[in-house]
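thread: overnight batch results

M.L. [08:02]
morning all. the overnight job finished for the chain we discussed friday. pasting input first so we're all looking at the same thing
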Amino acid sequence: MVVLNTNGSEARGADITVDAVLHPAGGGQTMTYLYQSAWSDAQLRNPPADQTVSVVDNSGRATIRVDLPPAGMAILA
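M.L. [08:03]
and the structure it wrote out:
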């Protein structure tokens, strides 16, 4: 999943709906960050494996919460 903050001056976040079949909510499912535009050079060379986001049940939808800096981008799997 690729997530973008198109606002160039303000941080933004959102609850993003994910496929509930692949990532059932409440089952301890997570998605891992493969890339974040705010990472340091060292993190870009060796992406941290421990940066994850939990899949939660949000009124019957499986969602993840992603917050990004201005003009930020992230890739999750």
